[in-house]
């Protein structure tokens, strides 16, 4: 099992300046790099307190790349349907070059009607736009004189520069919430996988991962990489950690419920059952989630016990991506949680954290 950090800002923008939040992200990323974590991961959301401080993962990860040396930089995910494939391919390749090949590209479909409306993208086209844009981006990375007849992105033969640093291209991940079909398609294509267990029952997620692994193997791609994202409230004092969990999970639910509220009057063939999302979110209970191990909280021993079960359920080879600074929890607690993760949680699991960067090492600069 490997570990990384996820950054997902969920709070009222009136309560914190963007600069303060980004400074905290930078400091935690440098800390994670020095401790030897596998990756930092940045989401994409727009226009609200539900992730709105993270509208462009590529820009934020570029800033992180300049401050770090070895940690991998993961989009978790960029929304393929909202971008033109030429611009997506070029900006991601540029980040891969600036970081000297540390980029992992996670692509997602998005699910908020307000975001689709703002970009003028029909929700019923989300699945096909996602699949075709990802396919086109990969072609633009690996081929010359690429043309496209996509209705939303028609262009004559072009060659995108810069080319990616990694050959043949950066690892591609597909973000899937509940869709087994998406997991199978990702496996067949040789892509890697990002999943979130919060809204997916464990048996369903196990079925999704089994289908993904079987599809990869059947297509001759060999083992893939699976990232699982958890919010984690880790501290020295169990009661304090649980109190933080209850407070900031309630904050998360409040903002998510507002963000998805338009689903009560919307329907889309590409998002079957999402009209029930509001009720599901409102029914969230922290203690039940803790008991189901869909949120991690407590002392290092508590969290190690939870992650041990995660490993048995989903595979010892998974990479766990932890959100340690939810809401307005604060940098002090997030940094302490990061230290506890490396010093006490990982050893209890027999997990290997890669060689740390020297404390006085300077960030790598282009030659």
UniProtKB/TrEMBL annotation:
Record domain Luciferase-like: where: 1-310
Gene3D superfamilies the record matches: Luciferase-like domain
InterPro entries the UniProt entry points to: Bact_Lucif_Oxidored, Luciferase-like_dom, Luciferase-like_sf
Source taxon at top rank: Bacteria
One Pfam entry name: Bac_luciferase
PANTHER family: LUCIFERASE-LIKE MONOOXYGENASE (PTHR30137:SF6)
Listed name of the protein: Alkanesulfonate monooxygenase SsuD/methylene tetrahydromethanopterin reductase-like flavin-dependent oxidoreductase (Luciferase family)
Organism: Isoptericola halotolerans
């Amino acid at each position: 099992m490997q570990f990384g950090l996820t950054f997902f800002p969920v709070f009222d923008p009136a309560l914190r300046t963007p600069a303060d939040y980004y400074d905290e992200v930078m400091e935690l990323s440098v800390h994670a790099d020095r401790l030897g974590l596998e990756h930092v991961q940045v989401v994409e959301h727009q226009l609200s307190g539900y992730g709105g401080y993270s509208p462009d993962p590529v820009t934020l990860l570029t800033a992180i790349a300049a401050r770090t040396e070895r940690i991998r930089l993961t989009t978790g995910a960029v929304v393929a349907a909202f971008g033109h494939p030429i611009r997506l391919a070029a900006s991601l390749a540029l980040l891969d070059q600036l970081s000297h090949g540390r980029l992992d590209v996670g692509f997602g479909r998005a699910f908020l009607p307000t975001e689709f409306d703002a970009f003028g993208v029909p929700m019923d086209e989300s699945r096909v736009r996602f699949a075709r844009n990802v396919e086109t981006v990969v072609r633009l990375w690996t081929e010359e004189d690429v043309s496209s007849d996509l209705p939303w992105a028609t262009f004559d033969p072009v060659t995108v520069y810069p080319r990616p640093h990694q050959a043949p291209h950066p690892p591609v991940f597909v973000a899937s919430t509940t869709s087994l079909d998406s997991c199978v398609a990702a496996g067949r294509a040789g892509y890697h996988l990002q999943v979130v267990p919060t809204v997916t029952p464990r048996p369903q997620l196990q079925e999704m991962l089994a289908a993904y692994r079987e599809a990869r193997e059947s297509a001759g791609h060999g083992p893939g990489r699976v990232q699982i994202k958890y919010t984690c409230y880790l501290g020295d004092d169990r009661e304090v950690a649980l109190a933080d969990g209850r407070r900031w999970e309630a904050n998360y639910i409040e903002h998510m419920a507002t963000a998805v509220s338009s689903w009560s009057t919307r329907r889309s063939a590409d998002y079957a059952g999402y009209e029930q999302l509001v009720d599901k979110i409102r029914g969230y209970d922290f203690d039940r989630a803790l008991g189901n191990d869909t949120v991690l909280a407590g002392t290092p021993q508590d969290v190690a016990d939870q992650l041990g079960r995660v490993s048995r359920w989903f595979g010892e080879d998974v990479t766990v991506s932890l959100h340690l600074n939810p809401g307005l929890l604060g940098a002090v607690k997030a940094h302490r949680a990061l230290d506890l993760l490396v010093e006490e949680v990982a050893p209890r699991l027999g997990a290997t954290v890669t060689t740390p960067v020297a404390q006085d090492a300077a960030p790598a600069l282009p030659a």
